[in-house]
Amino acid sequence: MKFKRASLLAGLVVPVLATPVLAHNFTIGKIAIGHPWTRETAATQSVGGGFLNIRNNGKTADRLVSASSPFAAEVQIHTMSMDGGVMKMRQLKDGITIPAGQTVELKPGGLHIMFIGLKQPFKKGGQIPAMLKFQKAGSVKVSFAVQPVGSAAPMEAGHAGH
């Protein structure tokens, strides 16, 4: 009887413990990171973009100041903007401010993480580990889900419409 109860309890607890991984959300302090994703890359491609939402649930602003990944020689924080009818990308050396009580979206064509000097291609269905460092909240390990080429948003099960 005790074994059945322990098995039933384990069956209920394990899915709950696994939920954050399935939900693809990460937190550090008052910072919540939602749905990090990237696109699959070709074997000859040396760069890749990373996209996610960052919510600051705190009462003071914080700043994403850097990122790193074992899959890239360097990881930078970038923005894209129109300049004289030409789309230009530039590094944000001071990072990105995350205002108190607000969400900042890193997405294709705007703010994003740039993986530079890829050590291997990003393969559809894979996960790219990375570390994000915030000025106040500190560092948090995240995982970018690799989506098919041309994806505009995460396509994982349970993420439709996000």
TrEMBL record:
Q: Which InterPro entries does UniProt cross-reference here? A: LpqE-like (IPR007410), Lxx211020-like (IPR058248), PCuAC_sf (IPR036182)
Q: Which residues cross the membrane?
A: none
Is-annotated flag, keyword Signal?
yes
Which residues, if any, are the signal sequence?
1-23
Which UniProt keywords are given for this protein, alphabetically ordered?
Signal
| Source species, domain of life | Bacteria
Q: Does the keyword S-adenosyl-L-methionine apply?
A: no
Q: What SUPFAM superfamilies does the record point to?
A: DR1885-like metal-binding protein (SSF110087)
* Pfam families, per the entry: PCuAC
User: What's the name of the protein?
Assistant: Copper chaperone PCu(A)C
Q: Which organism is it from?
A: Sphingorhabdus pulchriflava
